[in-house]
Design brief:
The structure is a homodimer of 776-residue chains. Chain A has 776 residues and is α/β, with parallel strands linked by helices. The first copy, chain A, has 25 helices and 22 strands. Chain A has a 6-stranded parallel beta sheet with strand order 12-9-13-14-16-15, sandwiched between helices. A 5-stranded parallel beta sheet of chain A has the order 1-2-3-5-4, sandwiched between helices. In chain A, helix 9 links the parallel strand 4 and strand 5. The longest helix of chain A has 27 residues. Chain A is elongated and about 90 Å long. Chain A starts with 21 loop residues before the first helix and ends with a helix. At the A-B interface, helix 7, helix 8, helix 15 and helix 21 of A face helix 7, helix 8, helix 15, helix 16 and helix 21 of B. The complex binds thiamine diphosphate (2 copies) and magnesium ion (2 copies). One thiamine diphosphate (TPP) sits at the interface of chains B and A. The site of one magnesium ion has 8 residues of chain B, from loops.
Amino acid sequence: YSETMTQGRATTPVSVPESVSLAVVDGWWRAANYLSVGQIYLLDNPLMQRPLAAADIKPRLLGHWGTTPALNLVYAHLNRVILQRDLDVIYIAGPGHGGPGMVANGYLDGTYSELYSDISEDREGLRKLFRQFSFPGGIPSHASPETPGSIHEGGELGYSVVHAYGAALDNPDLVVACVVGDGEAETATLAASWHLNKFLNPATDGAVLPILNLNGYKIANPSFLARIPEAELLELFRGYGYSPRMVAGGFDGEDPMKTHQRFAEALELALDDIAAIQKDAREAGQTVRPMWPLLILKTPKGWTGPKVVDGLPVENTWRAHQVPLAGVRQNPEHLAELQAWLESYRPDELFDAEGKLVAELQVNRPLGSRRMSSNPHANGGLLMKSLCLPTLESNAVDISDGRGALAEPTRVLGGWLRDVLTENPDNFRVFGPDETASNRLDDVYDVTAKAWQGEVLPTDENLSHDGKVIEVLSENLTQGLLEGYLLTGRHGLFSSYEAFIHVVDSMFNQYAKWLDSSADVEWRRPVASFNYLLSSHVWRQDHNGFSHQDPGFLDHVVNKRASIVRIYLPADANSLLVTASHCLRSKNYVNVIVAGKQPSPTFLSIDEARAHGARGLSIWDWAGTEVAGEEPDVVVACAGDVPTLEAMAAVQILKKEIPELRVRFINVVDLMRLQDSTEHPHGLTSDAFDALFTPDKPVIFAFHGYPALVHRLTYRRTNHRNIHVRGFNERGTTTTPFDMLMMNDLDRYRLVMDVIRRVPKLEKTYAPLSQRMDDE
Amino acid sequence: YSETMTQGRATTPVSVPESVSLAVVDGWWRAANYLSVGQIYLLDNPLMQRPLAAADIKPRLLGHWGTTPALNLVYAHLNRVILQRDLDVIYIAGPGHGGPGMVANGYLDGTYSELYSDISEDREGLRKLFRQFSFPGGIPSHASPETPGSIHEGGELGYSVVHAYGAALDNPDLVVACVVGDGEAETATLAASWHLNKFLNPATDGAVLPILNLNGYKIANPSFLARIPEAELLELFRGYGYSPRMVAGGFDGEDPMKTHQRFAEALELALDDIAAIQKDAREAGQTVRPMWPLLILKTPKGWTGPKVVDGLPVENTWRAHQVPLAGVRQNPEHLAELQAWLESYRPDELFDAEGKLVAELQVNRPLGSRRMSSNPHANGGLLMKSLCLPTLESNAVDISDGRGALAEPTRVLGGWLRDVLTENPDNFRVFGPDETASNRLDDVYDVTAKAWQGEVLPTDENLSHDGKVIEVLSENLTQGLLEGYLLTGRHGLFSSYEAFIHVVDSMFNQYAKWLDSSADVEWRRPVASFNYLLSSHVWRQDHNGFSHQDPGFLDHVVNKRASIVRIYLPADANSLLVTASHCLRSKNYVNVIVAGKQPSPTFLSIDEARAHGARGLSIWDWAGTEVAGEEPDVVVACAGDVPTLEAMAAVQILKKEIPELRVRFINVVDLMRLQDSTEHPHGLTSDAFDALFTPDKPVIFAFHGYPALVHRLTYRRTNHRNIHVRGFNERGTTTTPFDMLMMNDLDRYRLVMDVIRRVPKLEKTYAPLSQRMDDE
Ligand SMILES: Cc1ncc(C[n+]2csc(CCOP(=O)(O)OP(=O)(O)O)c2C)c(N)n1
Ligand SMILES: Cc1ncc(C[n+]2csc(CCOP(=O)(O)OP(=O)(O)O)c2C)c(N)n1
Ligand SMILES: [Mg+2]
Ligand SMILES: [Mg+2]
C-alpha cells in the first residue's frame, strides 16, 4: 500500500526557499528553548550576564521540560512556512504542559509584550517572564487561557486533535497545526480523533496537520507508539486515512541542523499536499476523500537538555519529563550543569545586551495576526458574528384551542434549528453521537445534511460533503469538535442522550474551567456559549433500561462556577423554543437544556413561554387552585416535562378531592433561579424566593433529576426545611413511563399523598384519600 | 506488509471437522434468530402452531433487531469450536442491545432454564421467554446482569474490548470472544482499546479474539469503518498490531451456508493462531510480541429480516436497527410479513411440538460449564478467592516518638501493596494511567513490574512480560481492564489523579448500575469491590493548575445506590493502610479512597487507626479541648488529609488564644457515616450523630471536596442548620498549597474566624482575634 502514502501528491522534496534560512530557524529554536529553561529555573539574571548563583534560582522548581524542545522546533518551522506561503495557521500543543514553550514563542514573536505590557522585550521583561511562570500570582504551567494563541490547555490530555478539527470546520483558509504527544495518543479520545479526517471537506473546511511527537515517553513509561515497529506505525496511520511522513532526528548527538533540514522538507511536502488537496477539491471538484498528510517527528524527550544527571541518563528517557536538574539551588554541581545547559543555546547570539531578540532572528516573525500567538482564530470571540435567529412564531405550537396540544418538543425545536441553519449556513452546526434523528431533530435535514466524505451508497440518506450536521458515535468527539468550533468564533448545539452525556463529564469540566479562567484574561473576547440539548431522558427510556437512566449531569455541572453554568428544564415545546433561542444568543456560558422527545402536552403559548422564560420560574395560576387575597396551603413546584405533567395531574386530583385546598403551582424552567442571588447571577433574592415559595408552607417539588440537587440549590432558603423533593432515586429498568414514576415515587398519587402528609390539617382529615392514592 | 497478517501462523484453511456439521450450526443460528424475533414481537403463540393474530403481538414493540443475527451467528459457531477443541470461552457482545440474541442462545444451550426454572424448555417456557423481554417486570433489552454468560451490558457502548482484555489477564486457558459493533468502534474507549494487545502475555494470560461486526450501520448512519476501502481497514488493524481476517457474506441473497463455511474456516485459523502463539510462548519461550488474530465479519445489518418494509429497504440499511416492522398489531400486512419472516427460520425443524430444541441441534450444546452462558468466568464470584492480606504492622508508620511523624501516605500504601502482590501473585493487579510512580506507589516494583510486550531498551526500568502493574495513559482503559478483571473473579486497585478520574464518570456509572442490578440476580455471586485510589489531589497540585483541581468525583459517586458506594478520606498514612485493607476485603462495592502523596503528619498509631476506621468517624480527644463532664462549645470536624491538618492547626490557635473554649475535634474517614442510617448502610443513627455532632452547637467542617456534599449527606440531621462547611470552591491555579487553602477559605485562620463567628459568645468578645486572623 505504499502508494497510499503519497497518492497523487508531491513526492519529491521541494527546494528549501531561502527567505528564512534554517540557521535562523535554529536560532529561534535555541531562543525558545533558552526561554523555556529560563522560565522553569530562573528568578533573576535572565541573560546570564553573570555566572548563575543559587539566589538566581527559583526556590521551587516546577514545570515540564521534556515535551518542550519538540514543541519549540515545530513552532520555529511553522513561522518560516507562514512567512514563505503567507499561511493562516494556529498551533495546538497537545501536551499542554509544554506551557513554557508556548509562552516562549509568544514572547519571541512579540505578541506577549503587546498583550502583557509589563513583560517587555528587554532584560526586565525577561526577568518577569521567567519569574511569573508557575509562580504564585503568575501564570499556570499549561497552555492555559492566559497563553496567547492557545485554544487548548492540554492539562487533561487527549483533546488536541478533536479541537483541531473543530477549529478547521468552515474555516477554509485555516491550517491547524496540531502537535500530539505520543503518551497523549494513548488516551481514548485521541485514539478516536484520528478518524475525524472523514468529516473534513477540502472544499469548504480548512486543513488539520497533525504532528505526532514520538519522543518515546510519557511520565514514567515508554509510549505504545514509540515501541512498535515503524512499519506498523505507518500502517496504523494509513489505516486511519492519512499519508504519514516520518522525520527522526537528534539521536546520538546528531547535529540538529540535520533534523531542521529533514523536518523543513517534510513540512514543505505536507503543505504542498494540503494545497494540492484543496486545489483538487476547490478547482477540479474532486470529491474522493483525500489522504491528508500527517507528520511523525521522532526526537529524544528533553532533547538538548542534560544527558546524564547524578549518573542516570535523562535526555531521551522518561526522566526528562519534568525538571531534569532538581537540586539546583542546593547542589553546586546541578547549578553548574544548568549554567552549561543554558549556555549551550548561546544566548549572546540570541538576545542583545538589552535583552531584545536579535534582528537576525526577528526575520522569523510572521507579521501581525499571522503570528500564531496573535492569530484571531485562537481568540475566537474577535471573529464571532452573532447568529441571525429566526422568530419562534413559525415553529411554535398553537394552543389557541386550549392548553395541552400534543407536540414532541425536540421535533418542534428541530424545525426551528432548520431555520437557524438556513439563516446561518457558515457558522452554526449541530453535533450528535448518531442521535440527531433519534432525538427527533431530523427536520434539520430539510436544509442540510450530515457531513460525510466517505463512500455513499444509493440507499443512504442525508449524507453530503458539506453537511452541517456532524454525527459520530462518540460523545467525546462531538463535544471536542464543538469546543474547537466555538473557541474559534462560531456557534453550535450538541444533542445527546441524557445518560451518556456523562461520557464527557471531564471534558465539560475542562471546558468550564477554560471559560472561567478566560473571563479573567482581558484580551480574550467572549465566545458563543456551549449548548447541550439532553433528550431521550431518564423518564422515557422505554426501549432501553437502567443503563440509559441517569440525570446526574446536572449535579456535575453545578460544581462549576456560577458565572459559567446555566441549566434549563423547559416543560413543553414552546418553552424549549424560548430557551434554545435564549441560549443561542448567550456568550461564555455552558447551557444545559433537558427536554423530551415524546409527544407531550404544550402548556404555554409562545408568548406565555417567553414571559415564563424571562422570569425563569413562575406561578402558573391557571394550573393551581390559589385564590387571590388568600394564602396558599401548599406549593406544588415542578421542573422538567414529565414532572410537570405529574404535578399538574396531582393538582387535578387535589382539586376534585379536596376542593377547599389552595394550591400554588410553580414551574421552574431556569433551575439556577432556585439558588440565592448571592451565589448565582440567575438566583432569586431571598425576598423574591420567599414571596413565591412562601416562608413557611410545605413545598412539594416534582423534579426531573436526583432530588438532592434541589436541596442543594435551595439550602439557604428560609423555607428550606419545608421543601420536599421527589425525583429520580436510581431505580430503573426497561419499563413503562408510568412504572418508572411509581418506582421513584414521582407519580401523581404519591405527590397527592405528599401534600396530604405535609399540609398540617390534611393528614388527619384525609387519610382515606391517601390510602386510595396508595392503592393506585 | 502482507506477511504481518499471518506471521508464522497457519495460513491454509484447516479442514472442517465433522463433529458438528455446519448444517447444525445453521440450524442453531436459525433457532436463535427465531427466538430473538419472538422476544421482540410475540406475546403468545410461540411456536406459531396457529397463524399469528394481532392478539399474539406485544402491544409495544421494543428491542433491537439489527445487531442480532451476527451475534447469533458468532455464538453458534463458537459452540461448535468449543465442542471440537474443548475450549474455555466467554462471549462479550459489544452491542449489548442485541440482548434478545444473548438470551436466545442461553436458552438454547439450556442454561436459561437451569437458572430461571419458570422459563422451561417447552412451549410454556417459550411463551414466557418471549413475553418477559422488554416488558414491565421482565428483563431489560440489553445483555444485562440478568443475562447468563454476560459480564458486559453494552448499553453504553465502547467497553467490550477493554472488558475482554481485563477478563483475559491471568486467565491463561481462557479465550474471550468479543464481538464489536462497527458503530461502537467509533467510541473513544473502543478506538483506544485495540492497543491492549500490547499487554497480553501469551505465556500467562488468556487470549482475546475480537470479531468486528461490520454490519455497515449504527442507529441512523453508516459507520466509518464500513465506508473506508478494505485495504485501509486491514492496514488499520495491522497497525493496531493484529493479523486481521475478513469474512463477508449474506449480501445479495447469497446462501448463508456459504458464510458459515467461510466464517468457520476463518475461526479455525484464528484459533489455530492463538494456539500457536501460546505454544510458542509457553513451550518455546518466544518473547516477541505476537500479532494476535482478529476477525472482521461483514454481514448485512438485520440479515434474514425483512428486506423492504412499506416500500423502503430495511435489511442492510440503518432502518434495520430496532424493530423493522413497527405496526404489526394494527397493520395486517406487517403481521403477514412477520409471519413470513418467522417461518423463514422453519421453526418446525428447530423445535419439537412441545417446544423443545430438536435433538439434532442439541449436539451443538457444549457441556456444562463449557456452555458460554454457564461459564463460571462470566459469574466471577464463583471463582473468586479472597486475597491473602499481609498484616499492616510491617508497613505502618511508627508514632511512638509522638504524633506527627511525617510520611507520604501513598508511599506507605505502596509498601503494603508490594506485600499484597507478593502474597497474591496471580489474582491481584494495580492499574494506573502512567501515574503509579507519580502517585508514589512505586515500591510495588520491588516485587513485580509493569506489563509490557513491546520493545524494551537498556535504559528502561520495571518493564516485563509478566508484570502485574498495568500502565497506559488512558483512565478509560485502566477502568475497563479492572472491571473485566473483577467481574471474572479477581482483585485490584486503580490509582489515578483525582481530577482526571472524571474521565471515567460514565464508566463508573455503568459499573455501579451493573453491581446494583447484579445484587438482585440470585445466581450471580459477589465479586471483589472496585477500588479507586485518588491521589495528587486538589490541594496539592503544585506543579499543575486549575485543570488538575477537581474533587467532584465524590459528588458523582453518591448519586449511585447506597448499597454500592463507599467513600473514604483517610487523614494519614496509617488510616490509609487500614482503609485499603478494609476495601480489599470487601465485596460488590465501589470504594473510593482519596489520599495524599506528599509528606504529611501521621496522626494515629496503626491501632488507633484501626479503631478509628472501625468507627468510621470519631472524636480525637487529644486534638480537641473538650473537658469531660462539660458540653463542648463548638465541634471542629474534618475529612481529608489537608483539611485535617488545617483543622488541627486552627484548634491549636484557638487553644492558645481562647483557652476557655471547649472544642470537640472529630475526624471523618468513612464519609457515608454522615448520612442517616436509613439512607446508607454505613450511616450513623440520628441519636449517634447527635451525640457526636451535638443537636445544637456550631459545627465547623473542614472538607476535602466541594462543601455541598457535606450538606447533602447531613441534610436530615437535627443540627444541620448549624453545620458550616469549608471546602473547595472551584478557585485554583498553579500556586502554593497554602495559597490554595486561602483562595478557598479553608485555611486555619479562616477556620478560627468561623469558630469565632459561630460560637455565640465569641463574636462579640473576640473581634480583635478575628481581625488578626483575617490579616494572615
Ligand atoms: C487524562 C490525563 N491523564 C493523566 C495525565 C497526567 N500526565 C501529565 S503529562 C503525562 C504524560 C504525557 O506524555 P506525552 O503525551 O507523550 O507528552 P510528552 O511530555 O512526552 O511530550 C501524563 C500521563 C494527564 N495530564 N491527563
Ligand atoms: C456511548 C453511547 N452513545 C450512544 C448510544 C446510542 N446507541 C445505541 S445503539 C447505537 C448504534 C450502535 O451501532 P453498532 O455498534 O454498529 O451496533 P449494531 O450495528 O450492531 O447495532 C447507538 C449510537 C449508546 N448506546 N452508547
Ligand atoms: Mg511523549
Ligand atoms: Mg453496526
